[in-house]
Structure formats: C-alpha cells, structure tokens
C-alpha cells in the first residue's frame, strides 16, 4: 500500500483520477464536481512520476473555484509533488493571487520549502515579481494598526517598541528573511531579476539588506558566496533596485568571498549604467514613499472570513442591506472610519488588489470605493454570525444531519413500507460545493436468533400487517416443513425466504 501511495496510482481509480486531473487543469468545474460526487476519494489521486495532484494542476492554472472545491472535499492543502512543492508554491510561481487568497484562507503553510533548493512560496513570488502574492502571503504577520509604518521604521531592540511590537516584528522578519539553499533570501531573488515593486515591498516590511549568501556546495553561485542583495542587484543591472537598496542602508563597499564589491560585480557583468550609482559617495539617503502594495486591513478581513465564511452569503430578494459593490450578497462587515458596509467577499477582493489611498494618508490604507476614505481595518456587523465550531470539514464533503444517532427501535411492519424522515433536520456547512444527501431514518427490526440457526419458529414481526391469520398459519406450516427437510442451515434459510417472497408477491403487501 505504501508503494502505491508513492507511485501515485491506485487500483480502480486511475482512469477517473486522470479525468479529474484533466478537469482541474482545464478549469472544467462541472466535470470536477461530477467526478467527486461519484468518488470523493479521487481528491487523493496524484499522477505517475511527478506526483502532481488535481490541486497542483488547478493552482498552477489559476482555477480558484476548483481549488475551493478540492479543499472542501478534504484534500490535503499542503500536499507535495516529487519536487516538494505545494499548491501554494505553484500558485505564487505563476502569480495567481486568487488561488493564493483561497489557500491562505484555508490556512496553507507558507513556511514549507521545496526539496531542490529550499525555496518557499515567498521565494517563488519574489523571483517572478508577484507583489500581490507577497502581500497575501504576509497577511497574517502584518496587524491592522495605523502605527505599523512607524513601528517598522524603529529598531526592534530599542526602548521605543513595546514587547508585543518586538514579537510580531521578529516573527515577520523570520518569514521575510528566511534563507533558501545557499543563504539566498526573497530580497536577493527580487533584486537579481529587477522587480522594483517587490523589492520596495520587502524592504518596507523589514527585509534585511545585509543578509549574505553562503557556499553550501549545492547551489551554483556565479556571483560568489558572501554576496548581499546589492551584489545581486548589480548583477541584474536594474538601477531602481540598486537605488532602493542603497536608500535602505546597503553598503557600497561590502565584499563577498571573491573580494568583489557591487561595483566590481556590475563591471564584470557589463552593467555600465550602474557605475555612477555604485560610486556615488554615501550621503543622506533619499526619502522614499511607502510601497503601495502594503495592505493594513487585510489581516482583519481574513480573520473575519475564516470565522464567518466568505461565500454562500446571498441576500434575500427583499433584503434592504445588499452590498453596493456586487449587489448580490448581504453586507457583513463595515470599514472603520467611514462605516461603509460591504460583504466579506468584496472586502477581501478590495484588500487584495487595491493600492494605497493617497500619499497623505496612513501608509497601507485602502481607499474606500464609495468615499475614498482610507480604510485601516474592518469590523463585523452585529448580524454577522460565525460558522459553528462543531461543523467539521470531512473528506466526503457530505451534508451533516442533526438527528441523533441513537434512535428508538421500530418494528418493520412490511418490507414495502417507506420510512418516515419528516422529523430529520439537515444543517449544511459553509462552502458552496458541499453536497446534500437525502437523510432518512432507517428503521430497525429484531430478528429471532434461533431463526438464523434453522429453528422451526418464525418471527411474527416479519409478517406483513395486512396478511390475515390463515396466511400466517400457512406460512408457519410451510416454513416448518421446509426447514425440517433442509439439509443445511443455508438451504433452510433460502427456502424460508423464497416462500415468504412468493407469498408477499402474490397476495401480500401494504
């Protein structure tokens, strides 16, 4: 069994699994729903060799609806392929921010590193310059506080910061400055590829300009070990990245293990346009504006979405409190300051894609779409109820029933009578792809133990209620004679049930 899990296939489900992989890759939501309804265990399928699951394919292609369907069906959100990459890594690599948002809401692990070079999802997002994905990855580490910018400008170990401020700054620094193999950080990757917006965002959130690479024997480093992000920016040849790093304290005279300064690296790679910038004498650093990709209210709205849900909040046709953005869902959150109300889904999209309100407002504020007031955080409306804690997500994604599992035993009057399920109430968990099942109470019947041993007596509870006494006596005589003549227990049971079925088919019934 362990070998089958490593290979990625299992007997009897490879064909259906490949169909689910194709549906996830092509974005066929209806096909994926039908396959999961047929066999919910297909979410565990992975392809042969590369071991990519349907979650990997849908995340890499940006099909966030299928990603939500698979997550609600019970798939492991941190499932790895043969390279050790998760679905979050592939979504960040290709810049699909909607998929990243969905995975973050389902609490995907952002600290997982792949097997090849030890890179995390943050490294892949910085490598390709996806600032929207970087914003979402760090949402749980940036509080919705108007003083965040001033706190980040302070030294964490100074007396100006409180103990709680020092703790979350250190936690944020550990995530941003986490090195991959060779000591390469996300800032190194963004600077090498010339992604100015990503470099500015990482610097504003506390990325270190003094982190150096190491020589571990696994990564090929053409620049040399001991290089700072400025060395990598000089190799990449982007002047704006070099200016941002220098403005944030990068040293122009820092030497790596090859005794190369950033200027020497720029000359060796024929980056002649950088000589003036890298030879300028250090003076007062220029004042730079905060990154427009900082989103302060993102943490508050993500907490509300996880607690109260962000889908299946459609407003009633007579509802007077409909979201003014989508005109579909009921308002569930309010913006602090202007008190304008939105649904959770629209507030999520607003915090994930909007840029800073204005240079004169708090850095990281999101402009309100109605009044352009800077939004720092969101609060729940009084009528917004949290998702019940006792409803857990299962691997089958079926509807939960509130009826008790311990029911009073009822006697089966006739095999043709239908059980009554009117007293059974259903409760559907959050999520649009949860499938409801018809919940009916199955009646139980008591069988006489001696009946299974071939005893001549029959149980009266198995006889239809409308059959007269003569038929009952006839059945009893037939069963006695038949069971006495039987040579084995199996033959006696077979003859008794065949006699019963024949009588019911000809003259019995409710």
What's the quick description here?
The chain is mainly alpha-helical. It contains 22 helices and seven strands.
Describe the structure.
Helix 4 runs antiparallel to helix 5 (64-72), helix 8 packs parallel to helix 12 and helix 13 (196-204) packs parallel to helix 15. The chain has 3 domains: 2-279, Serine Threonine Protein Phosphatase 5, Tetratricopeptide repeat; 298-380, Herpes Virus-1, CATH 3.30.40; 450-506. By secondary structure, it is mainly alpha-helical. A 3-stranded antiparallel sheet has the order 2-1-5. A two-stranded antiparallel ribbon has the order 3-4. Strands 6-7 form a two-stranded antiparallel ribbon. Helices cover 40% and strands 3% of the residues. It is an enzyme of class 2 (transferase). This is RING-type E3 ubiquitin transferase. ANK repeats lie at residues 50-82, 83-115, 117-138, 182-214, 225-257.
Task: Present the secondary structure layout.
Blueprint: H1 2-7, H2 14-26, H3 29-38, H4 54-61, H5 64-72, H6 87-94, H7 97-105, H8 121-127, H9 131-137, H10 148-153, H11 163-176, H12 186-192, H13 196-204, H14 229-236, H15 239-247, H16 262-268, H17 275-279, H18 298-308, E1 333-335, E2 341-342, H19 344-353, E3 366-367, E4 374-375, E5 378-380, E6 400-401, E7 426-427, H20 449-452, H21 469-485, H22 489-506
Antiparallel strand pairs: 1-2, 1-5, 3-4, 6-7
Helix pairs in contact: 2-3, 2-4, 4-5, 4-6, 5-7, 6-7, 6-8, 7-9, 8-9, 8-12, 12-13, 12-14, 13-15, 14-15, 14-16, 18-19, 21-22
């Amino acid at each position: 069994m362990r070998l089958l899990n490593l290979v990625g296939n299992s007997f009897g489900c490879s064909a259906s699994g490949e169909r689910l992989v194709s549906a996830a890759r092509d974005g066929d939501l209806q096909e994926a729903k039908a396959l999961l309804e047929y066999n919910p265990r297909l979410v565990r399928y992975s392809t042969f060799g590369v071991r990519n699951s349907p979650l990997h394919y849908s995340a890499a292609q940006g099909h966030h609806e299928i990603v939500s369907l698979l997550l609600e069906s019970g798939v492991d959100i941190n499932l790895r392929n043969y390279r050790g990459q998760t679905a979050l890594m592939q979504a960040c690599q290709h810049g699909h921010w909607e998929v990243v948002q969905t995975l973050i809401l389902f609490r995907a692990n952002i600290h997982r590193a792949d097997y090849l070079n030890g890179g995390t999802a943050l490294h892949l997002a910085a490598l390709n310059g996806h600032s929207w994905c970087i914003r979402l990855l760090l949402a749980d580490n940036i509080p919705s506080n108007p003083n965040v910018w001033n706190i980040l400008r302070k030294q964490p170990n100074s007396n100006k910061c409180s103990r709680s401020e020092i703790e979350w700054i250190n936690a944020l620094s550990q995530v941003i400055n986490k090195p991959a193999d060779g000591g390469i950080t996300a800032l190194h990757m963004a600077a090498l590829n010339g992604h100015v917006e990503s470099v500015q965002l990482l610097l504003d959130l506390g990325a270190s300009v003094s982190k150096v690479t190491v020589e571990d024997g696994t990564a090929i480093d053409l620049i040399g070990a001991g290089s700072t992000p400025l060395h990598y920016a000089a190799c990449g040849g982007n002047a704006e990245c070099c200016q941002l790093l220098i403005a944030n304290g990068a040293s122009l005279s820092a030497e790596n293990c090859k005794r190369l300064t950033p200027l020497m690296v720029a000359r060796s790679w024929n980056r002649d346009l950088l000589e003036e910038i890298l030879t300028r004498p250090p003076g007062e650093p220029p004042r730079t504006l905060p990154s427009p990709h900082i989103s302060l209210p993102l943490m508050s709205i993500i907490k509300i979405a996880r607690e109260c849900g962000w889908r299946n909040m459609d407003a009633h046709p007579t509802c007077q409190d409909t979201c003014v953005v989508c005109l579909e869902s009921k308002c569930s959150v309010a913006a602090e300051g202007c008190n304008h109300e939105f649904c959770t889904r629209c507030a999520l999209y607003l915090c994930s894609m909007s840029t800073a309100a204005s240079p004169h407002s708090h850095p990281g504020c999101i402009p309100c779409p109605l009044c352009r007031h800077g939004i720092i955080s969101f609060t729940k409306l009084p009528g917004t109820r949290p998702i019940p804690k006792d409803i857990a997500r299962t691997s089958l994604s079926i509807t939960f029933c509130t009826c008790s599992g311990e029911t009073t035993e009822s006697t089966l009057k006739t095999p043709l009578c239908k059980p009554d399920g009117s007293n059974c109430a259903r409760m559907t968990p959050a999520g649009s792809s949860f499938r409801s099942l018809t919940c009916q109470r199955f009646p139980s019947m008591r069988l006489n133990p001696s009946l299974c041993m071939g005893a001549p007596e029959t149980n009266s509870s198995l006889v239809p209620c409308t059959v007269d006494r003569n038929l009952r006596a006839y059945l009893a005589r037939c069963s006695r004679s038949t069971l006495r003549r039987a040579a084995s227990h199996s033959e006696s049971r077979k003859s008794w049930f065949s006699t019963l079925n024949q009588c019911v088919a000809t003259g019995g019934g409710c």
